[in-house]
Amino acid sequence: MTVLKDISREARNLAAVFEATGAEVVELDFLQISNVLLDLYGEDIRGRAFITNDPVHGEMMLRPDFTIPIVERHMANNVSPARYTYSGKVFRRQEEFPDRPREFLQVGYEIFDGANPEKADAEVFSLVNEALSGIQVRIATGDIGILMAAVRSLSTTDTRKKALLRHIWRPHRFRTLLNQYSGLSSKPQPNQDLDDYNKLLDKFQAIGSRKVQEIKERLRQIKLESETDPLDPEEVKILDELLSLKDRCMVARSHLENLSKKMPGIESTVDNFATRLDFLKKNGINIDRLDFEGSYGRTSMEYYDGFVFGFYSETHMDLAAVATGGRYDALTERMESGKKIPAVGAVLRPDLTFLLREKNHD
User: Is the dihedral of CA 169, 324, 288, 273 positive or negative?
Assistant: First the structure.
């Protein structure tokens, strides 16, 4: 009981840092309508969520996080700029990791402001850094927006670029596609002329749950892919350099600026990266010691599409991140049916920060 009280006090202390900005303190329902979460996160979340049925609203789940409900609230308020902070429990099934908690507190801070996104990025990061004062942490940062801009800059078909963008958060699948498009692995090949397939398919109305037209379209895409030239080796080399880049932010900045001369399509996102560093420096962050990883966030931050960061214990390597965050403009665009609302936020784990503070006192 004492530990729970201590963690609750830790949560209040963390939240106080964000409340001091004048952010609106938000309380949200424990139960969330699941179809919105499933549409945005995909079916993967079903295996990690506690789900129940409501006679009126249908399938619902205990909130797995706060981000989507916060975005929904902001869209309903229709006020910009806006800042929100919250503190409350989230719930996760832990079948694969039974020792991990099924419910735990999260404290968070979200900014919706398109006037100066890089300044907002730096604000969120700096406040998290302030909230974690006294804890020995290793900080990782990245920028998925630069990688996405590089993919969009490739001199290849839109179909290929869309496929690579869809799998940016799945590194193995992304690499498989990149090798395939580069000619390093075999392409899918139709076994006979496309017209012969179409004539055969015209005799059927459907095959399984797929419509004939869907199958025809897929065959057309396979044929086009088989006839498309491999990716430019120099462009692939730039992608590989971005993915493998791991250095201090100021060194990374110089390297990225050099790459942008070879691939002008990433120039604006690299400029944004440099501007963000300037704001971080103004906020008192030692950017000379801040790390940058070109691939950071690609395995655990699927709805982020720009600046990403994580704070990890330097003394307890086995712990999950004590804080993570980043920019998620693309998520708001999907929720607003095409209208992008610039947004950046962060979540902190009071149970972990309390544990680390206690360890520091031992």
Answer: positive
Q: Per-residue DSSP letters for 100-130?
A: S-SEEEEEEEEEE--S-HHHHHHHHHHHHHH
What is this structure's pTM?
0.86
Q: What is the pLDDT of residues 232-263, one digit of tens each?
A: 999 999 999 999 999 999 999 999 999 999 99
Structural contact between residues 288 and 248, judged by C-beta atoms closer than 8 angstroms:
yes
What residue ranges in 115-217 does DSSP mark as E strands? 137-143, 206-207, 210-211
Q: Which DSSP string corresponds to 213-253?
A: HHHHHHHHHHHHHHHSPPPPHHHHHHHHHHHH-EEEHHHHH
pLDDT (tens digit per residue) in 310-331: 999 998 888 989 999 999 998 8
Judging by beta carbons within 10 Å of its beta carbon (0-12, 13-18, 19+), is residue 78 exposed, middle or buried? exposed
**Domain at 1-134+344-362: CATH architecture:** 2-Layer Sandwich (3.30)
- Give the separation between CA 114 and CA 109, rounded to whole angstroms: 16
3-state secondary structure of 93: coil
- How would you class 195 by CB atoms within 10 Å of its CB: exposed for 0-12, middle for 13-18, buried for 19 or more? exposed
* 81 preceded by a cis bond (ω within 30 of 0): yes
- Rounded Cα distance, 348 and 359, in Å: 18
The CA distances from residue 246 to 90, 129, 270, 290, in Å, are 33, 21, 15, 11
Q: Where are the domains of the chain?
A: 1-134+344-362, 137-183+230-313, 188-229
Question: 362: Cβ–Cβ under 8 A, 6 or more apart, which residues?
Answer: none
**Is-contact 274 253, C-beta < 8 A?**
yes
Residue with structure tokens 């303190």? 25
- Name the nearest CA neighbour of 80 among 120, 20, 107: 120
Task: Give the torsion sign (CA, 32, 33, 36, 41).
Answer: positive
% of the chain beyond a pLDDT of 90: 57
Q: Please tell me the distance from the alpha carbon of residue 168 to that of residue 174, in angstroms, as a whole number.
A: 6
- CATH, domain range 137-183+230-313: 3.30.930.10
